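Posting this for the archive.
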Amino acid sequence: MSFSELGLSAPLLAAVAKNEYAEPYPIQMAAIPAILAGKDVLGIAQTGSGKTAGFVLPILQQFQKKKVAKNRFIKALILVPTRELAVQVGAVFAAFSLDLPRPVKTLAVYGGVSINPQMMHLIGVEILVATPGRLLDLLDSKAMDLSEVDILVLDEADKMLNLGFKEEMNRILQLLPLKRQNLLFSATLGKDIDTLKEIILHDPVKIEIEQEVENLDLIKLSGYRVSEDRKGPLLRYLIKENDWKQVLVFTSSIHKADAVVHKLKTNGIKALALHSQKSQGARTEALRYLKSGEINVLVATDLASRGIDIPALPTVINYELPRSPKDFIHRIGRTGRAGVPGEAISFVSADDEHHFRVIQKKTGRWVDMIESEGFNLKGY
């Protein structure tokens, strides 16, 4: 199936092609027609399954038929659990709305930065991507109005509940009009999600995408005990000493990914970053460069890494450990695919020791640790 069969308009199909989306993912094939039909949707899918474009595209198409909203009266609200995801979703809206006949202004708001610029940028915004806490801050400041919201998206709802946003979400729901289209996406179903589903969804279309089962039997696991200040030199040492040509490195933040890439380039190693502040086109290009051998190292964050598929990728490195055992399995599962063995290496600082033991226990995979203190990393 192609995007042209999903009911999208010609301008959006042009935007899809411009952003180098080839074929729709399963969740997009199911969600886009349902959302265009005005249905509520319950989507159960992991991060990286393609769900963001699955709701962004039909929402933008619906806005082509809507009257321009009154200033500071939001028409579509997308709630997300983290700043990184807010930035990522906002970037997808921006990428697909550039050349639409009816301009649609989108804004991503989140905590950890000054609220005043966000308040100023709310002028003319019709689609708002927000973390719950910052949204309530803006509402308390009377910077916007939610009384005319007619599309609500809860993205990664399970994470929002796990991060303690239940009270904030309940407050926000009370401020919304009763008549609206509701789209709920979650990686899992559970008691809290079932309750939330009953509260906000009306006769929803249920879409469930099975999680990819990782084959870990072909993956050799190893770990290096290393202090934080020696991680960079150790990474460069391993790449050069082993003459690695294709390496996927994971960090826990955008800032760290960019810093690692900068140091690699400074030391003569071809590298690019893959994270949520990169455009879809830039991410696609970076992945293509690694596959073709034009770069040796791709440094990725978890939010941008879902869906990375590189045949016969030999090496994955956890420069920083992931937050959860599930993310650890996902990361190392980028190697050891299609019957080809691979190696997954984790850098473990003294502060990480306990967390790494928990990861090993919950995944049932125990790792032999290598002491790196005696390595001569001078010049790396």
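The chain has two domains: 3-208, 219-371. The radius of gyration is 22 Å.
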